[in-house]
Amino acid sequence: MNTPRIVGILLAALLCLSPVHGAVLKPGEIVPNFTLTDRSGKPVKLSDFEGKIVFLEWFAHWCTFCRAAAQQIEPGIVEYYAGRGGNPDGIEVAHVILNLQSNAEAATTGFINQFKLQNSVALNDFYYGVSSAIRSQAVVNQIGTPQPTFAIINGVAGSPSHRQWELIFSHNGYGNLSSPIQTFRSKIDAVKQGVVVEPPSVVALGIPERNADGSVHFLVEGNRRETIEIQGSLDLKTFVPLGNAPMDPAQRFRVDAAPGGLQFFRAERKAQ
Q: What does pTM read for this prediction?
């Protein structure tokens, strides 16, 4: 009889599908760029939400607390931030709902329609692949994870408050939160806009021209306001400062170089 062998194979397969304990992500860690499919079968990656705060909400149509959460999150999170143009720093909040129940298309559609979630991104996570990796550490050892599951991820690059793709918050269950909407908002509002790093400006030196007194002058151009120090050298080894040219995008500046046989010139940006 092959029953023990079949049971053993099934058990091994289930173990392979189950998340490793150490793989559960904690707030502060970076979420890998996972890919799931939407309800039409189109793949959607976490990185598709770059530049946004990603609010993830796992649900099943039959889950009582999922229904209670959906009823409050649509006005309390989705409409709230849409009406304000994002969080206090102007960062858009992307609401992503993740369906855990397979083979229930009609019931899932009814859930989405009932709670006006048509404008949210709807993905399938039937095998709990992402949910199991993000569920809060407090329930890792429990049998039967409370639903719904929530996670907030920062998709903003260069943010001074959080690293890009950092897991900011995760929680399982809804009835066990005393102030769920306020809790979610406090985490979302803490994300700061990324710092824009300006590209380095271009500095151009014109062809040196000799003056009657033997000094040298040339034009200096830059593409934004800054201070440029003009330096001269006899041998390309030692450069001496000749003067500063404060640059402006709309102007050119003439810099007179002192006489003395200088043959080589360069421009160096000075800290403001």
A: 0.66
